[in-house]
Write a sequence for this structure.
């Protein structure tokens, strides 16, 4: 099984969904590390409860992104991390990590990108008055939710929808879609790696 790291900044509901999927075998991976940029974030408690190592850092203690990403990258390499899943990580990934993990970093976003990128996508969709939003899983590049889309699933918005009710609906989709999609990506990655090794012989 591949070692994966999850980057998260907040409550960690998608982190927990991935952990639970590993427990029941629908996600065949080893969640080897949580990377978190916010001391006190609830996701840290979730990781500790699951005995998953945590790499916690405070970006304010570094002069620039490359400084803390160099340290993160060293930790990822040390722990043989092969794939990265962002789950509510509120920072753009910089070139230091992107270059090393090209094509091996994915993110989940609560809208049908390219609509409503960035912060508070749920609030953005409600303010816009659209009839549906959804969930997008995409590869990560240097932009704000601009990477190649892998899969999307629509979520209808009711006339009397509230932020809280819409969040519940979106998270229900996220918690099923993210583990399933990651499993497909890991299967493809393993298959591709095997083919490459065979062709090299």
């Amino acid at each position: 099984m591949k070692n994966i790291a999850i980057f998260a900044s907040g409550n960690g509901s998608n982190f927990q969904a991935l952990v639970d999927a590993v427990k029941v075998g629908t996600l065949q991976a080893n969640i080897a590390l949580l990377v978190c940029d916010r001391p006190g974030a609830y996701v840290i408690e979730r990781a500790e409860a699951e005995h998953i190592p945590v790499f916690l850092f405070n970006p304010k203690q570094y002069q620039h992104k490359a400084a803390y990403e160099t340290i993160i990258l060293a930790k990822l390499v040390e722990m043989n991390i092969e794939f990265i899943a962002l789950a509510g990580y509120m920072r753009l990934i910089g070139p230091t990590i992107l270059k090393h993990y090209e094509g091996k970093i994915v993110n989940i976003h609560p809208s049908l990108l390219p609509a409503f990128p960035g912060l508070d996508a749920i609030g953005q969709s409600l303010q816009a008055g659209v009839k549906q939003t959804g969930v997008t899983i995409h590869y990560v590049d240097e932009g704000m939710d601009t990477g190649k889309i892998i899969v999307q699933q629509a979520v209808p918005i009711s006339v009397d929808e509230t932020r809280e009710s819409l969040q519940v609906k979106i998270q229900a989709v996220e918690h099923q879609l993210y583990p399933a999609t990651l499993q497909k990506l890991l299967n493809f990655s393993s298959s591709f790696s095997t083919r490459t090794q065979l062709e090299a012989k």
